[in-house]
Amino acid sequence: MRETGAHRQRWAVETMAVAPDDRVLEIGCGRGAAVSLVADQLRTGRIIAVDRSATMVRLAVERNTSHIDAGRAEIRCAGFESADLSAHRFTKIFAVNVSLFWLGDATQDVNRVRSLLAPGGRFYVFGERPSAAHATANLTATELLLRAHGFATTRASVVRGKGRVLTCVSGTPSD
């Protein structure tokens, strides 16, 4: 049986321990699986999700129509760097398997995350790697990136089937 990416989103949402009143931003929502899982936990809170692919946004909207209609979810077609989010402060911001924070100079993106976090808010960077060695390298690089931008960090990982490792580095601004 072919394994889908749903296990990543489930683990991510469980790891974040979404509260009913959280204000959540997902960077790179894909088909909207995590949007649905987060919105299921919300009562007075809300999730905004962005993705640069119009196809993925359409699929995410179709999957989450009931959450959108209930006011718990909003899905926007935009890259993180260009999404109009200035009116919002989030208690949780997360990205699952989004290369934005691993490739090239992520300074502007990490600084943007910092500016969008509410006081005490937390940023989560989730990934899935093919081996423990790849996972360790990714965890270390992500942790160094966040620390270099003033985040106090924690890390987590779990081994899944066929040697694949799910990873998470999370952090809160230390000032």
From TrEMBL:
InterPro entries xrefs: Methyltransf_25, SAM-dependent_MTases_sf
Pfam families: Methyltransf_25
GO biological process: methylation
Name of the featured protein: Methyltransferase domain-containing protein
Record keywords, A-Z: Methyltransferase, Transferase
CDD domains linked to this entry: AdoMet_MTases
Molecular function GO labels: methyltransferase activity
Domain Methyltransferase per the UniProt entry, residue ranges: 24-121
